[in-house]
Write a structure and sequence with these properties.
Helix content is 30%, strand content 22%. It is of the alpha/beta class. The protein has a five-stranded mixed β-sheet. The chain is globular and about 55 Å long.
Length: 304
Amino acid sequence: MKMAAEEPQAKKPKLEQNHLSENVLFGMGNPLLDICAVVDKDFLDKYGLKPNDQILAEDKHKELFGELVKRFNVEYHAGGSTQNSVKVAQWMIQSPYKAATFFGCIGTDKFGEILKKKTEEAHVDAHYYEQSDEQTGTCAACITGDNRSLVAHLAAANCYNKEKHLDLEKNWKLVEKAKVYYIAEAASLAREQGFETEDIKEIAQKAQALPKVNPKRQRIVVFTQGKDDTIMATENEVTAFPVLDSDQSEIIDTNGAGDAFVGGFLSQLVYDRLLTECIRAGHYAASVIIKRSGCTFPEKPDFH
């Protein structure tokens, strides 16, 4: 479940696609290098992995990532939830390049260099805080048949230093250039806030009404629920939007669907478009990503 960013100031004139400025969208989170490979059962058994699972790496998985690269034909992708969303938003926007900015922490190592190259290929303006205490965060996607066993090692992703990166004048200027900001929030919001309900519409309504520093902008809350309706709460109402129907036989990987929805949503929010359009774009992006392996996409979107 994802919670999308806030709506920018209302009733600004709509901008045409080629009038967006660079760095209009800002994302900050845990960057991971996705390392994807088709593996065999022996590899899964060696590291105690289930065929279809998502886990955080333990000490016994320390050698997994290096062995994956040495033994199998791997593909690399820029990953991590927020970075995925920013990457999808840039894909939906297309022009200008670097409309989307991303901050996070990586290591000064080979995987870090690959990650920088991959974000550059996605035309995202990534500015990483680089340190040598921890290795670049990675996520191994071990594929067997239709199953994917994901092992995430956050490592450097947990080492971001605000004072040494965000507070630098050149980086803060990029923050100030942005119009829309996105940082992923966890689905445990209701428990953390003590909402005492499991009704998704009620949770959205309560989240929308939480205290806010800037009263000039109303908060917009959006929850995705996989194949179930997307829920949007504004100051006045809670609305459910059905997701796009997909042929089950075409669905390959649903892991990146939530991140893709956020990316599609943000790609229209930066134009001040109607929230219904933002949700339509989110549903479109998710429908594309679930028919591919990993959070990947074709060269250009077909969204109108």
